[in-house]
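Researcher: Let's do a round of design. I'm pasting the structure tokens now; please hold your answer until I've finished.
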């Protein structure tokens, strides 16, 4: 009987591991087979549920419980708030003001635009910020008659780097914070200093990376046809709501509110401030595909977790982590970064979270592993154009710009991103490693 039970046990783990493996391979190779990653994720989630029922380790009810709704609702709420803010013209006015202030000094323009994108990435996810400012950067660069490539790359690299600092700045952070029950304050306290040092390094390194492009003398800026602020009430109301939401994120632990509820309250207030807001239009501009991708990943990883395959993998990792937690944390950071550069950091984060949670149930202090994972997947996203969704968007709009102009040299190629982004990734990882090494006791202190 024990032999039969052991055989069934191994079969459950094998089936869930195969579904996970083939789904992730399909997601990571979408450029080859042409099937969008959301479709691959949905197919994998459906397969995992059906296979789980056949082999009695997973069912639809388990799948619903496996979804981290805090992440889904928070992302959806923030997307809707941004969808309401974009038509007001406020973001355009910010970009124009920065362009005017720089007075043709290209490095100053790069730093100011990168700083604005970074600041917004602390509250909005980095995908949203580059979606907003990518087209504006192209418009400004075309007016100056300079190459937009350095500025687009700078926006993505600084956004990827800065977004690591807060709980809501990057989708993987939301996943880690929700799984590990890390609040907004603890995330900023632990990651803020590390990210700030990495960000400063990136800013100065960008001047070296693009020294030839930044040495060009631009034409006088002509944005005389700029559109005025079309809906000041909604724009300023939205800024006030975001300010209150920041306070809500900081105090959500004391209030016993989940971050998604803070976002929901902010969205509710905003739709009443702007009375003419078309709700159907606002919801139509949320990235439902990305939300469905998250839901599918949670279902897939939930199935693997229910089969106890991840717990089985953890038994091989636990002895190493127990013997040298510092080395394990730094190794996790670098492995996470390398894999996140090769593949999107969201599915990798989804796969790692239950493994770390499994080690926590065995009495291991996994607190530094969470910080190592967050730093690794965040900084690793800079390495290639596939490292984060924000990168993919920047490459896409550069390709469109090149096509419209009939000039292929205006497109950001994978090779170009690799040459510019990989050094940035390595430098930021080195800085994070040094900080982790010297302040390990701080990062290893268990969260209360």
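Researcher: That's everything. Go ahead.
Model: Designed sequence:
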């Amino acid at each position: 009987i024990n032999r039969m039970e052991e055989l069934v046990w191994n079969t459950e783990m094998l089936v869930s591991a195969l579904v996970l493996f083939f789904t992730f391979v399909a997601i990571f190779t979408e450029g080859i087979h042409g099937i969008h990653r959301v479709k691959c994720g949905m197919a994998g989630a459906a397969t995992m549920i059906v296979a789980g029922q056949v082999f009695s380790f997973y069912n639809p009810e388990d799948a619903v419980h496996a979804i981290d709704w805090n992440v889904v609702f928070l992302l959806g709420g923030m997307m809707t708030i941004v969808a309401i803010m974009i038509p007001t013209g406020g973001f355009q006015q910010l970009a124009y003001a920065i362009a005017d202030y720089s007075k043709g000094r290209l490095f100053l323009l790069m730093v100011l635009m990168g700083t604005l994108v970074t600041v917004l990435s602390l509250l909005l996810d980095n995908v949203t910020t580059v979606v907003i400012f990518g087209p504006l950067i192209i418009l400004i660069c075309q007016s100056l008659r300079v190459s937009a490539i350095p500025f687009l790359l700078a926006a993505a690299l600084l956004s990827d780097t800065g977004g690591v600092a807060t709980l809501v700045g990057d989708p993987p952070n939301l996943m880690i914070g929700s799984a590990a029950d890390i609040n907004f304050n603890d995330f900023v306290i632990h990651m803020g200093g590390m990210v700030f040092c990495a960000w400063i390094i990136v800013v100065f390194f960008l001047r070296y990376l693009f020294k030839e492009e930044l040495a060009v003398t631009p034409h006088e800026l002509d944005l005389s046809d700029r559109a005025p602020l079309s809906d000041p009430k909604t724009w300023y109301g939205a800024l006030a709501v975001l300010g209150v939401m920041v306070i809500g994120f900081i105090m959500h632990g004391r209030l016993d509110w989940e971050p998604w509820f803070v976002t929901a309250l902010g969205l509710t207030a905003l739709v009443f401030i702007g009375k003419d807001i078309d709700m159907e239009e606002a919801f139509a501009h949320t990235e439902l595909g990305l939300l469905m991708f998250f839901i599918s990943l949670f279902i897939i990883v939930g199935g693997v977790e229910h089969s106890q395959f991840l717990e089985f993998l953890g038994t091989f990792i636990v002895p190493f982590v127990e013997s040298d937690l510092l080395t394990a944390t730094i190794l996790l950071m670098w492995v996470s970064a390398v894999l996140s550069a090769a593949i999107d950091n969201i599915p990798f984060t989804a796969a790692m979270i239950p493994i770390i949670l499994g080690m926590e149930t065995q009495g291991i202090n996994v607190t530094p592993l969470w910080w190592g994972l967050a730093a690794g997947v965040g900084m690793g996203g800079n390495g290639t154009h596939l490292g984060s969704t924000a990168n993919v968007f920047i490459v896409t709009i550069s390709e469109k710009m090149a096509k419209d102009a009939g000039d292929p040299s205006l497109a950001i190629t994978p090779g170009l991103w690799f040459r510019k982004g990989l050094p940035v990734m390595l430098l930021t990882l080195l800085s994070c490693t040094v900080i982790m090494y010297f302040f390990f006791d701080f990062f290893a202190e268990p969260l209360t």
